[in-house]
Amino acid sequence: MNPTSSTKGPRREDPSTIAQGAAHALEVEHLTKRFGERTAFSDVSFTVDYGEVFGFLGPNGAGKTTTVRTLGTLLTPSTGSATVAGLALSRANGVEIRRRIAIMPESPGLYGRLTVFENLRCFAGLYELPNARERIDRALRAVNLVDRANDLCAALSKGLRQRVGLARALLSDPQVLFLDEPTSGLDPVASREVHELIDGLRQGGVTIFLTTHRLEEAERLCDRVAILNTTLRTIGRPDELREQLFRKALIVRTLAPLAKPEGAFGGVRGVENWQEDGSGAYVIAVSDPTVAAPEITRSLVAAGADVLSIAESHHSLEDVYLELVDEDVEAKVGCS
Amino acid sequence: MSRTRIRAIFVKELRDYRRNRFIMVTMALMPAIFIVLPILDIFVLPAVRASSAASSALDKRIGLSLLYMLIIPAVVPATLAGYSVVGEREQGTLEPVLTTPVRAEEFLLGKALAVLLPTLAIVYAMFGIFLACVKLFAQPAIATAIFSGQHVLVQLLFTPLLAGWSIWVGLMISARASDVRVAQQLGMLASLPPLAVVALLSLGVIHESVALAVGLGTALLVVDAVGWRVVAAVFDRERLVTGGRT
Questions:
Q1: What is the pTM of this model?
Q2: Which domains does chain A have, with CATH numbers?
Q3: How far apart are CA A280 and CA A251, in angstroms?
């Protein structure tokens, strides 16, 4: 993959419109969007640095797309404030913000009766890009679609259309690229191609705001993630979130159940508590796995146990997500 | 205002129309129907101009026949403009466009020009064919009446004015409607009032005069000029993106 070059940091700055101290690609403070009585998202605050790939996760209806549309100036926030690509989010800055960003919606929305080139030519005009042909060629090269430039978009597969959508988003060298569910509905091969593209863009330094509910995608691609379920549930690096939510633990497997597990684990240094997991293994919460593991091994051997394995417990981003989203579901059930 | 952005929308629309069978059939069929009727009508007119009363009656018959030609700039743009915004929304192509720096005024002007220019080309071509037929095949007295009267001038001037009205009304309905067919039907209905005035003139219910023609023309011109701004003001990105759940 051959991502287009990116322009990092604010450009075309007009001092009257630049938000003071805008050091981030995105700064969102207490942003809320309501549609009448319904709240799409509420009191959302976060920042995204230039060059960062930021994952925005959440279940269907969590407010992810509405957040993107709000930051993209398509929707007016109900309350709160934000800075997008160095500009305060306001109606007056709408045109300039849209000039600095690009949004690829979940459905690429291409003109089916126009060719790939004609679609991109139209958008190059809308961004008033100089050297349009050159930029289109570069964007098509970035998504490996040079040989499909003269195909009608209606004749393309969903995966190829998604790539055209991505090429369109890259045309203007945006400071912030919003990708809304870029792999939704794609087969694994097409998804992998999109992942490779995003990976390439990240290496090129493009700031990417990626909404998805594919957790493995977020874990693989994102520097940091936020989990939204109307309100922001958590934010951080995937490994930080795992640490915040899950205590460090060791999984111990023995050939036969221990006669007196409390004797084996009870007084061992670094062990905080333990429990059987129901499959013949013991889950031992520890303060530091590297200290506790040798101690537990010695204790088990001294107790005459046949140890099959001792391994550190790993939690995926999916575990973090499910933990937080399940909490919300339980809270709703509790309230009702 | 950016001419580049207006041009981008305009060119895209023309390309899209050219490859849209429904639009091409609409643009070809409707004018064809509305040119056949006046030609037939003119050919069956009696050529007698013995008195001023007969001359006046002949003028009215010619005016009525030519009214068919004015239906084209009223109805064809209404159909296209009605499709313009809500059609894009239904296809899912509107949101990507609205995420670009294009302003509502530029977007609408590009769309309006893409409807207006083909409409003018079609109507003037049809009128040219009509005049050629009259010159070649109509009775000399009738041909003289058509060419020497104000009919030609009325056709040339009222065609863009009526088309302008239909386009802005059609675009306004399209920007607020949630269904293409509803937008097109409402657009066609809304395009008729100015045509009704022209019809009343042709039928002699309202007595034609230069002052009336100038007044009507000026009113349409003002409506066309203000229409652009009015439609831009009611063009609500939020409503268009969310489907009106605001």
A1: 0.80
A2: 26-237 (3.40.50.300), 247-312 (3.30.70.100)
A3: 10
